């Protein structure tokens, strides 16, 4: 399973959204359940699934699915 598919599944499950509604262009405004608590739940799932540690500044910057993918790419290139 590729990274986008993993993230897509996480977001769809966590925010109770149809899988096909989660695209690279999706933002937190597209999901009713993407609140501050679920934002942290998403961060913890990403850290666990991809074995990364996301900094405080990065947590605040995540607002889109593309942003998550960019973050993962940056962490892989460290």
TrEMBL record:
It comes from the Bacteria. PROSITE patterns: CARRIER. SUPFAM superfamilies: ACP-like (SSF47336). InterPro entries: ACP-like_sf (IPR036736), PP-bd_ACP (IPR009081). Residues 1-76 form the Carrier domain. This is Carrier domain-containing protein. It comes from Brevibacillus porteri.
